[in-house]
Design brief:
This protein has helices spanning 2-33, 50-58, 60-76, 83-88, 90-114, 122-147, 151-165, 167-180, 186-196, 199-215. 76% of the residues lie in helices and 0% in strands. The chain is mostly helical. It has one domain.
């Protein structure tokens, strides 16, 4: 029984590391792709969807603030989940965490201000607004838990926070599917993307957090890789 439990943990750790690396690569690639929004400051709209252009034109300050700051959270976020970095360089972990929280709060507030102008209309705006509100709540909650040294709650809330940050990646991965399903534009499919880009992520994190203690009954309630 002990040998099987040990092997299960080893397999789980390998899968966890592979998943973390995949998440990191996708996050960095998506964050780099978002650099195209910098060109808008010089009136260069390379690769910017017409619907998104309309949003930026309607509310330029909050829209561009979100689009330029959110990638910072997306890129630095995965490094918060590297257990070796946490244990061997806790000061770096803390500074990355502060950068992540600051980026989430600024980008989240900007997203709230931008949501009513969503190119997909009020239904899409509601979905993106709910995402922004939940993103802010979990991120601030995770930060407060860390300050109070409640690291179990901190790690749990940070998982949920990054699940919503990672919506930037899942949204982009779903756009080709939307076109394949017959949607004519991003604006048309954003009525769905405003929900499908982040709710499955949150559900996946909830299931993982619930199952982790059951898979490793002698391990701490929160997995060390999270």
């Amino acid at each position: 029984m002990t040998d099987r439990l040990t092997q299960a943990r080893l397999n789980g750790n390998k899968l966890g590391r592979a998943s973390l690396m995949a998440m990191t690569v996708l996050a960095i690639a998506s964050g780099i792709y978002s650099l195209r929004f910098i060109g808008i400051l010089d009136n260069v709209w390379l690769g910017v969807d017409q619907g998104i252009r309309g949003v930026i034109t309607a509310v330029p300050v909050p829209a561009l603030t979100h689009m330029l700051i959110a990638p910072i959270a997306l890129i630095v976020g995965p490094f918060q989940f590297f257990a070796r970095l946490r244990s061997q360089a806790p000061h770096i972990h803390r500074w990355i965490g502060r950068s992540y929280v600051a980026a989430c709060v600024v980008a989240g507030l900007a997203a709230l201000a931008t949501a009513p102008s969503a190119s997909g209309g009020p239904i899409a705006g509601l979905g993106f607004g709910l995402l922004a509100a939940a993103w802010l709540a979990t991120t601030i909650g995770a930060w407060r838990a860390a300050v109070r040294r409640n690291f179990v709650l901190h790690r749990l809330l940070m998982r949920f926070s990054y699940a919503m940050t990672f919506a930037a990646v899942t949204l982009r991965l779903q756009i080709p599917i939307g076109f394949a399903l017959g949607f004519a534009s991003y604006s048309a499919m954003s009525v769905w993307l405003a929900y499908t880009s982040w709710i499955p992520n949150v559900i996946a994190v909830a299931i993982y957090s619930w199952l982790a203690p059951a898979r490793y009954p002698s391990a701490p309630p929160v997995a060390t890789e999270a």
